[in-house]
Amino acid sequence: MKRWEGSVAFVTGANSEIGKAVIRQLVDNGLKVVALTGLKKHLDELVKELSSKSKKEKFYICKGEVNEESDVLEAYEWIKDNVGKVSIVINNAGEKISESTTEKWRQLLDVNVLGVCISTREAIKHMKKNNIDGHVINLNSFVNHKVGSLDGDIYGASKYAVTSLTETIGLELAKENNSKIRVTSLSPGAIKPELKPGEVSTLAPSDVTDAIIYVLSAPQSVNVSELTIQVTAKEV
Known about the structure:
This protein is of the alpha/beta class.
């Protein structure tokens, strides 16, 4: 991770437990992190936590929604003018919806698919324009490999779309001989911040952040295009 020290990372879905864990891990590894969230108040505690003298200049917040194109464009402009050039993008925003209404389906697809498309497109445009050998990591889900009963409706379908998007972009970048931008689909199994007695074992947010650090720590000559992580105990 040493080569990333001082670099700028952009994280969407920052108000989720995984988003907060990702921010902590990246800041601890010496990166400047800009979070995109529609609910800044949900990050108040994290702001206080990272407000120590050594970290206060490493965490910034942009208000906006990843599925709103104007919000993403404005965020990149603000980052360029106030923080620096983006080297790492973690597309973490995502939703699960159990009620099968058309409006909720649109909402899910807007965030899980369109939001990732917008953020990834702008990330790669930004990296190419600024000649940055950056890395885009799309937080996916194990259901893009195996549909499970725990994820209903079209959530699984939206994650298959993220897999296809990531693979397609990887192929497009590979055709560009001078491009060293890397893209990764990271697919964790079920995640819970804390387990209650008797509950089935799941991954913790820290397991996901450890996987992100693993991906970012790979040699520049290596691209981890797909990584799936599951808890050792069998998931049901």
